[in-house]
Structures
1.
Amino acid sequence: MTYSPDRPDAGPERSRDQIHTVSLTEECVMRPRIDAPESPVPLAQRPLAPLPPERVCEVEAVAELFLGIFRRDLATFFPHLQFLPAPLSTPNLIAGPGFEFLPRLDGSADLCLFQQTHRLVPRDGMALTRQDGQLIRAIGSVLGLRYHHLFHLTTSGRLELFRGGSEDHYIGAFVEPWAYDPSATRPSRIAQTILTLRTAALSTYENHRVSTGALLLGRDDPERPFPRTAADALPYGVELTGLKSIHRLCDGKRTLFAVDAEGRLAGILDIARFANELADPHDGDVPCARSYQAHARATRARGHVCVVLSPNQEIKLFAEGRHVFTFAHGRWRVLDPAAKFARWNDAVRSTAVARSIFQAALNLSENRQGALFVVVDEPRAALGRLIASHDFLSTEASAAPPSEFSPHDPLAKRALHYLARGRNVNEIDPAVLEALASLDGAIATDRNGRLLAFGAILRHEDLPGLGLAQAEGARTTAALVASRYGAVLKVSEDGIISCYLSGEKVWDL
């Protein structure tokens, strides 16, 4: 509630210094109580509250703060983007940020904030994708809405905009942009669900970390409508995590909570069965880790969104049939598996081989097992230079080791070569391929998928000019070297998958 210093009966007395330092929100925008009834006039149609001239300098400071926050959060998601600020001029601060994102033909983009145009340029030369633009717009829409609700709103504020992490709201605005439209009055289900999972991650149940998840239901299917939500259904939010028994009802992998359009806990469902009922002829266009394939399929139709807290304590978000975001190692990562698989597929030049290896890498990553996959361009060129002759799988049984050998002999592992001799990654069972890849060393194939080596310690003595960093690990060094002979996928034990081509890392997943 706002008090006027000119009326002695309006509230507590204030000193001259206190009156002088009244906040901009309190002095310039006469805000009502938080529990005041919502105005029927949409925010976009309400007149902006004029600011007195003596306060413009303070608004400039606030605008500079918002611009700094935008640049900081942009760098969090896009460290490869260079922000080129506009020349100094007098911006129109009264109208608010007025955010606009304008892609350019050269792969860069113009960015309008406070009526000033800035430039976004990728440092790696890669053009901004449609998904990149969608996320940048989401950041702008959240910050713009916060600005208006701080300084220009004449009705009760949406306090949930300032609840939880800013990045969580950016993810929410990316998936459900309408929840951050100025005319929206309902909190974002995405941001609310993420905050709920964050809170659940702080708990344990019977000395085990909690894993859970929710399917946010989208549009109803007229042929198979959702069951009606019970009248006494609880809201799906942070308060629900106080019920310890709730953690046993849903494990996040087989079972998920169903959350309706109003954000209420509507029920519990078997995610595999739910996904099978939404069968789609284009299922499987983008590979996904085996444990979460049903979660991805469940979001292919009707706008469903799946958010999961995994046993690894990662928050995973699935939308439009894909694993879109992951929160791990203290930050959100934009995955874009479709674009990254497309580039890997182009490098391998065989969709069947590319898919088999990519799928195996995803499964190993989810299980936190390291691996190194090499698709060699010219096997003859790699023999003896990248892959030692005793690691190379011969097509002849006569190349097997002698019947007597020392277990410490480097040639001893030839005794197991017959298990993979003549095999192809397109024909071998996925679990067997993952087992071979999990051995120390690399697994190598040719472009047709024929296995060349497994458990191979790659050589790089003949590449002194590669310029390897001293701090690189053994697997990273091997990946950089091997990428001179073909396409490489490296799986780290922290769950990160990296692609290397021509001596450079081209993406992380």
Note: The mean pLDDT is 76.
2.
Amino acid sequence: MFLRNCWYVAGWSHHFPDDGLVERTILGDPIVLYRKGDGGMVALENRCCHGLAPLSRGRKEGDDLRCMYHGLKFAPSGKCIEIPQQDIIPSTAVVRSYPVVEQDCWVWIWMGDPALAERALIPRALNHNHPDWFMLTGELAYDANYELINDNLLDLSHLSYVHQSTLGRNSMSWGDSRPRTTRIERGLRIERWVVNHPRPNYLGLPPGSLSDMWAAYDYMVPGVFLLATKSYPAGIAAECGMQAPTADPDWVSSTSQAVTPISESKTVYYYSSCLSRKFADAQHSRQQMAVIERAFAEDRAMIEAQQEVIANTPKTRMLQLASDGGLNQFRRLMAGLIVAEQRPSLADREEASHAVA
């Protein structure tokens, strides 16, 4: 099941050129996206209301989109404004239009009731396109349900195991650390000290250099991961009493990631790698991204294998551990929102009861 009344990432801004039509499937809905003359985005149902041909095989005409099967032309609103050989346009000649916003180098689409689409509900990415930060981007397709990817990001203790030779740096620091989880509006905040963690090799420090790393992230509905990491000399965590640091770090990075379901069994994962220019150079940025992409390939291999086991043994229950607190809270949050949007309102129920009477 999917939460529809929320914003999903449909792609990076550079995925959508000034000319051309881009196909997407999100929550099982076929969608075509394109830019208007002013650069603004349009998102329409990707099937003509006449012969159900995909509008992504159509043609842009100004800000409008013409179906290239029988020639119906649609405005950005989804309303048909021209039918060849026919003067009268039926009121039913319309395709669905989705609210769409471009923000922080991402194109966001609202999949539910357009009347509820508030821009303020879009989580703000960290340091995207900021002049003081290096930024690299990527995306990864999964043959897996989106909830398994959310679970993976909500419990970073797996870095010491799945990513032993990449992000885990052959250390048990992540696996041994205990996060503090706090409920925030439409999400969770998860914070932890990762003590005596090896520093990245590409920083050029002496082999075996250790740091105390403060890792804090917000995990927002429907699956948006916003992580800021600050590195300090070993021993700072104890000096802070394992509370949030106030001193200036000696290295900082951030990443913003978004989980977008295509269907119940397929997902696309968008991610960034951002390094502060104050502490790093372009080569460091490229080296960090290379490590991140190797690690994400490790995640995909594990999660797709997990999905295969689940598909083959659907009645098997997962054992719950203490480290599952964050992912269980987020699953309950999502489930509650899904139930709430599927439940008819009191006014709808009263109207239905009067109609029956």
Note: The first strand starts at residue 7 and ends at 12.
3.
Amino acid sequence: MQGYADRARSAGRTIAFVPTMGFLHEGHLSLFRIGRQRGDLLAASIFVNPAQFGPTEDFDEYPRSLERDLSLLEKEGVDVAFTPTEKELYPEGYETYVHLKQLPEHLCGLSRPVFFSGVATVVAKLFHIVKPHVAIFGEKDFQQLLVIRRMVADLNMDIEIVGGPLIRESDGLAMSSRNSYLSSEQRPAALSLYQALCTAKDRVETGETDVKKIIQEAKSRIEAFPETDIDYMAVCDLNTLEDMTHIDGPALMALAVKVGQTRLIDNMMLKPPDK
């Protein structure tokens, strides 16, 4: 992969890169389409990264379908797929990790303490291997996008980071590989996340500024389904992810909820009128 990237760069060609954990869906495909417009060559990686899973999380169960994924990459015009093994990226004796101080201390980082160190580490490694000029990440994982942008800025990586819009299924559920875990009976509970966010957006657009009231209404909607368990729900600053108490400008509402054993995340921008 490094040799391929070196030859492309020597020939003056730009590389756009989309890193994934595979089991691709339309959300991923939308990122490839952005990448196709941003570089001469489009690279993708498929790697289920063990470093970002805690000991009780779903690493072994995480859905995988490499043959199907490669077929989708080919259809989307991806030029090169990098599919390393765990031993190739984390050989015996591996001990170097990337840690951020502040951004992981919010939202998903509170309940998944190893997650963002694992994400930052594997993305840094992938950047050194694939050598992209631009990399595309989905805004569904908004905190991850901020973490990668911060790491790239802090470590002076010469890579442009582009966010791709969150893609939803026809009923509004945010697309995720983990949606495959949901039973048909759990679908209404899963949809309550999107419905709660839409209600919050409507409230803010009609003048509500009290975050406590917005969150309480959203919690009530989600907790009406007994199979839900809220991990977090927050309205926060778009750049720092610090919690807000009143909304006086554009903000992010983000939440993570378990539906049965499936952990789902979602987010939506909240924008007051005339802001």
Note: Residues 227 and 260 are 5 Å apart (CA to CA).
4.
Amino acid sequence: MVGLTIATTGGAMAAKPAQTDHQRTLAYWTPARIANAKPRDFVRTPGGGFKKGPGQNAKPPRPGAGGNVTGASWTHSGQIQVKSGKVVFTLNSGDYICSGTVVNDNQASVSIVLTAGHCGYDGQDGGFARNWMFIPNFDGAPTYTCANTIYGCWTARALVLDSGFTTAGGFNTQATKHDWTFAVVPAGGKSNTQLDATVGSFPISFSTASGTTYAFGYPAAGKYNGSDLTYCKGTPANDPYNGNATIGMACDMTGGSSGGPWLTGFSETSGAGTLNGLNSYGYSGIRNMYGPKFNANTSATFSRSNSAPTSNQIVTVTP
């Protein structure tokens, strides 16, 4: 058994009624702001720490084996294209982009989007993200105007994170172990409907990814342009340079793909599978993508988001 402690925080996202905040966020994201948002990525440095943007000289072994796909355009369409999408948000230092995916929930009034912890919170850069917005199936009509996308845009009324991430004091090994955000989004899009009712959602497993795993995202740095749903396929392995606390696979996706989903039991024909991880960080110059091991903490964080909170939340799990 674990004990569950929940801290509720207000902040900018909870200061106004949900609909007013939704309208404000939509108004904030002009095409120019979305176009100028920067990839929110972290890489490991030679000294064993992490920093934003490209790192240098870190050369861990590549996980996985033959048969990997290390970064290719997704051309099969299907559920993964529709249920995943681009995330944009604001921290004190500016506007950023990540990736995200719609998760199964049991609420009629809200939907839930999974992304990385660092795509929802930075204690050294203003705390909880503001102007948090999700654009599903961005690949289907890669435009920076919500009205011209396939389904429109959804904004978050609450971001839910694990205290292991929010108390880490920066992006470090502790943070990588808890690098997930569950965003709670009310009705939105072009028809003011529920996100999961519009595009569907994926089941989620709270066990460590293993076996053949697919990773997806919208990488926007280096050779990628941020408009194309990209994928990797491989077998996850522990990251020995991070104390085996996280797992990774051979993959060359870059910044902007953070928060994109990992799926097991995945069908390339239908694009269906089960969520069991996400893109978190990499090593400059090495075709690896790493992410947290989903576990009881992930489950507790999700459970709180699945209670339809109206303000930002930090969840603490104690033994």
Note: The radius of gyration is 18 Å.
